[in-house]
Amino acid sequence: MGKVLVIGAGGVGSVAVHKMAVNPDIFETVTLASRTLSKCEAIARSVKERTGVTVATYEIDAEEVPALTRLIQQIAPDLAVNLALPYQDLAIMDACLAAGVDYLDTANYEPREEAKFEYKWQWAYEERFRAAGRMALLGSGFDPGVTSVFAMWLKKHRLKSIRTLDILDCNGGDHGQAFATNFNPEINIREVTAPARHWEGGDWVETPALSVSHPFNFEAVGTRNIYLMYHEELESLARFVPEMRRARFWMTFGDEYIKHLTVLQNVGMTRIDPVIYEGREIVPLQFLKAVLPEPASLGSTTKGKTNIGVIATGEAQDGSGEKTFYIRNICDHEDAFAETGNQAVSYTTGVPAMIGAAMMLTGKWQGEGVFNMEQLDPDPFMAMLNEHGLPWHVEELDAPLSF
Ligand code: NDP
User: Fold this and answer.
1) CATH assignment of 146-342+391-397?
2) Dist. CA 215 → ligand 1 center (Å)
3) SS3 content of the chain, % helix, strand, coil (to 5)
4) How much distance in Å is there from the Cα of 84 to the middle of ligand 1?
5) Rounded distance, CA 403 to CA 400, Å?
6) 35 Cβ closer than 6 Å to some ligand 1 atom
7) Which residue's C-alpha comes closest to atom 31 of ligand 1?
């Protein structure tokens, strides 16, 4: 049904390409381009061995817009799937506009010098995509991504309106390392060390990073401490579910992770401003990334499960008063590794990227302009989650969250 160009050969790109290859009815040809050709080739080899499908590979610096535009024109895909880093989002959107193809990503644009997590830079492309008759789909990973689709499914099928919404992201996996991050360390640490922010009463409420936490019992994982954080889908949810009184995002962190992160912060290793070292500028967090384990290398040792979901309270559709629903997916690290050679954090992001791409290529999700996940029909996406390795489960809870 369509040709796709995937940009970015990390863990998420690897999962997405493997999953596209096993769906040739939707993805007629898959091309992979990234900064380091050898990483593209390693993924293409794995795809060939596992599925028999050939993936063409190219080396590209996605921040070089003219070169990327030429590559897109040469490959002539229907859709470019951006699974590189948030820093490249705007350059890839520019190249898509110049070459006349649709765009999809899993994380909002971030300027390198500021950890901001705002959609404003990408929402500003609305007119240009609309004028070009092209579609850009933002945030088609798990969170952001599936979490917003979960919320909109509840709003379509269970709740007339949503009063409070909590996103709970638990990674119950153990990789056997004292300290490592499950996706790009630089992006992960920027996110975790940013002040927490949640939506309440029509405004943002800010609290210091990792200062609010509660124990929560996750199915298939057990009790873990969840920490209040800011996460980008809170912004799009606040925009597209305007009746929400409160929306919060929680993530689990183990004591060891918090201990190491606290020390790294205290000694200045998580700073994102440049410092002079031996006469040249270095950014401490980028240096730290260089010495931490590559997330892709954790796949073979990670055991346990992820459990990511949404708890929403609001007015029931059937007129029975206020109700609370919990909708979630549980994903096993070892199963994800056996299927794609990547652990569950990459898997839970790469599969929704593939599904978002499938929605666009099959015309189930169509439009001109820049779209967030909340604006599109959740049903076909939810059906594909069940069919492609991320089954979900919804249950009614007796009461809203107690905290
Ligand atoms: P990785 O760091 O493993 O992979 C990123 C890839 O992008 C690498 O192959 C890297 O190349 C490539 N890249 C970086 N800069 C450029 C550039 N200028 N031009 C071309 N390629 C480039 O990250 P992940 O796979 O873990 O994450 C990928 C994306 O997914 C990130 O944006 C991340 O924020 C997002 N994400 C979203 C989640 C969600 O649920 N929505 C969850 C997890 C991640 P090289 O190999 O040379 O470094």
Assistant:
1) 3.30.360.10
2) 31
3) 40, 30, 35
4) 4
5) 9
6) yes
7) 85
- Residue ranges with strand state E in 148-236: 159-171, 196-200, 203-207, 213-218, 222-229
H-type helices in 194-245, by residue range? Answer: 233-240
Strand stretches in 283-391, DSSP E: 305-316, 322-332, 369-372
Count of other CB atoms within 10 angstroms of residue 189? 22
Options 3.20.20.140, 3.40.50.720, 3.50.50.60, 1.10.10.60; which CATH number does 2-138 get?
A: 3.40.50.720
The verdict on the CB of residue 36 being under 6 Å from ligand 1 is yes
Q: Which amino acid is at 283?
A: V
Question: How high is the mean pLDDT in each 10-residue block of the chain (403 residues)?
Answer: 95 97 98 98 98 98 98 98 97 98 97 86 98 98 98 98 98 92 86 93 96 97 96 97 98 92 93 94 94 88 96 97 98 97 95 98 98 98 98 98 96
For residue 120, what are its two tokens?
Answer: 């404003």
The helix (H) or strand (E) run that includes residue 21 is: helix 11-21
pTM: 0.96
